[in-house]
Amino acid sequence: MKKILFLIIILFNQICFAFKEPPQVVLQRFDLPNTPYHHCGMSMVTFLPGDTKSRHKHTGLEVGFVQEGELVLKLEKHPVKTIHAGESFQIPMHVFHTTEAGRKGAKVIATWILEK
Asked: 3-class SS at 101?
């Protein structure tokens, strides 16, 4: 029984590690007065090669800039797009999307304006 529990714990840790999201550092976050969108923020995300941010959507607009490397942007019902260092991108509100690092990883600055 202990061996089975040990194997389950090891397997669970491996699964969690495999689906690890890239670290995100929030640079600033603040409320916007007198607008239907109440929350604005900026973050830096460092993707290692092969890192993926899983499928999700936002209640507002996200705008990003790739500082280093390249990012593969997969927007639902849109063609897949590769964003290279020095290029920017937009993700419309309520659109499911996934982002993946290129072969060398990526460093991305993202700004969002979301409903609270």
From this structure: strand
CATH number at residue 52: 2.60.120.10
Cβ 67 vs Cβ 108: under 8 Å: yes
**Beta strands 24-31 and 61-75, pairing class:** unpaired
Number of structural domains (the chain) is 1
Helix (H, G, I), strand (E, B) or coil at 17: helix
Model pLDDT for residues 42-76, shown as the tens digit of each residue: 999 999 998 999 999 998 899 999 999 999 999 99
Helix, strand or coil, per DSSP, at residue 21: coil
pTM of the model: 0.76
Residue 8 lies in a domain: no
Instruction: Tell me if 76 is assigned to some domain.
Output: yes
Residue 34 lies in a domain: yes
For 88, the domain range is 22-114
User: In this structure, which long-range contacts are made by residues 12-21, counting pairs with CB atoms below 8 Å and at least 24 apart in sequence?
Assistant: 19/54, 20/51, 21/51, 21/52, 21/53, 21/54
Under 8 Å between Cβ of 14 and 73: no
